[in-house]
Write a structure and sequence with these properties.
With 179 residues, this protein is mainly α. The protein has helices at residues 18-37, 42-45, 56-76, 95-99, 105-128, 148-174. The longest helix is centred in the last third of the chain and has 27 residues, at 148-174. The radius of gyration is 17 Å and the shape is globular.
C-alpha cells in the first residue's frame, strides 16, 4: 500500500527493489514540484527571489523540457517535441526559463504534466526492453552512453535541486513553507 503525505505526495517504498525505489523517489520529487506550484496565479508564477531570475513558471517549463529531453530525445533518439522543436537553442539556451512568462499557469502545468506522462510511458517501454541497464540512443561527444538507471538518478537530482529553489520562491509568494 502506498502512503500519501499531507501534501498528496506518495512516499517512496521503504524496502522496494531498485526499480520501485528509483521510480518512487522520482514520483515523490515530481509531486513536490506540483505541490509548490499548486493554486498560484500568473503573478505568483513569475515571482523571483533575491538576485535570481528563476520563477516557478520557468521551473515548470524547464522541467517539462528536461523530462522530454531525457526520456524521449536521449533515451529513444526522438526529435524534440513541440514547443521545444522550434527553438534556436544556440541563440537562446535559457528559452524555457524566460518564455514561461508568456503562458498561463494552467498552460505551464499542462505542458509539464504532458511531459511527465510521456516520460512515464518511455520509462515503462525502456524497462520492458532492457531494464535499468538499457542504454540511451544518443551518446555524449566522447561516445559514452547513459543508461536508464543513470537517467532516472539524474532526474531525481534535477527535481531535488529545483524543488529547493521552489521552496524559497513559494515562501516568498505566500509564506507557504514545507520540506
Amino acid at each position: 500500500m502506498t502512503t500519501v503525505d499531507e501534501q498528496g505526495r506518495p512516499e517512496p517504498p521503504l524496502a522496494g527493489d531498485e526499480i520501485a525505489t528509483l521510480l518512487g523517489f522520482l514520483v515523490y520529487e515530481r509531486a513536490t514540484l506540483a505541490w509548490k506550484c499548486a493554486g498560484l496565479d500568473a503573478a505568483c508564477m513569475t515571482a523571483t527571489v533575491g538576485a535570481s531570475s528563476m520563477t516557478l513558471g520557468g521551473m515548470l517549463k524547464h522541467m517539462a523540457y528536461v523530462e522530454e529531453n531525457w526520456f524521449s530525445r536521449w533515451l529513444f533518439g526522438q526529435e524534440r517535441q513541440p514547443p521545444f522543436d522550434t527553438v534556436d537553442w544556440d541563440a537562446d539556451p535559457d528559452w524555457e526559463w524566460h518564455s514561461a512568462a508568456d503562458e498561463t499557469p494552467q498552460q505551464l502545468l499542462d505542458l509539464w504534466q504532458d511531459a511527465v506522462d510521456g516520460a512515464r510511458a518511455s520509462v515503462a517501454k525502456a524497462l520492458s526492453d532492457g531494464g535499468l541497464e538499457r542504454l540511451s540512443q544518443r551518446t555524449w561527444p566522447g561516445g559514452e552512453v547513459p543508461s536508464l538507471r543513470w537517467i532516472l538518478v539524474h532526474m531525481i537530482e534535477e527535481y531535488a535541486r529545483h524543488n529547493g529553489h521552489a521552496d524559497l520562491i513559494r515562501e516568498s509568494v505566500d509564506g507557504q513553507t514545507g520540506e
